[in-house]
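Box 3.1 A note on notation
Throughout this textbook, protein chains are presented in two layers. The first layer is the amino acid sequence; the second is a token string describing backbone geometry. Keep the layers aligned when reading.
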Amino acid sequence: MSKAIFYYTGSGNSLWVARNLAKELGDTELISIADWKKGNPKIDLDTAGLVFPVHMWGVPPPVIKFTDELKALQPKYLFAVGVNAGALANTLVQLKGVLKKAGLALNSGFSIIMPTNYAPWGGPGTKEEQQRRFDAAGAKIKQIAAYIKAKETRPVEKGPLWQRIVFTPIYHLATPNLAKMDRSFRADEKCNKCGICAKVCPAQNITFNDGKPVWNHKCEQCYACLQWCPQEAIQYGKNTIKYPRYHQPDIQLKDVLKNR
């Protein structure tokens, strides 16, 4: 194997980006970070990429944890794509520092803007607004692929200065409490006990008790459970019941569950 993209996804945005980028690069394997097992056989990598959603204006903890695995693979060229809804903040600068501590150099880092899946703050926008973001993302993916093929070393992209000043401290304050932020999840009367929420959770955080889902304080705040529930039965706090659900329309549930 010469090229691989390691992706982390909840609603499918990052998988869509990873899939389209792999298509542009050619001969590139897609590997789920959530499904990677410690001790997996070492693979020979010339080029490796990390594609992940920006969580709480920073790098999701599972991606940070995965850098230990990536260190063992020692890719010759390493890039990253932070998928966000317009608030990249300091995410890629943060990742560059994490990788440096692991003895790895981040050769390039890019931002891709997609519809939001952060349900507590509203829906993803109209279909027309979503399509505009998909079209812009597709064009930028082609540009990113050209940089990667040329193995260009480029400064990582950053959010505006105000985002980096305001949101970076919030990330560091909120992340230690992330796992227990699932206290606000609940299943309402529409729940039909199908179990999809438990199957789609990358943290294996959901179990069932008396036929109802229970969140066990290992949450990663990806909202896969809420967004993929076919009954729209899962709520977070008081407001999500009035917001439309979203998962990337070209990504199917079977794509997310493939290796689970």
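Helices lie at 13-25, 61-73, 91-101, 127-149, 161-174, 196-200, 224-228, 253-257. Strands lie at 3-7, 28-32, 47-53, 77-84, 108-113, 185-187, 206-209, 212-215, 234-236.
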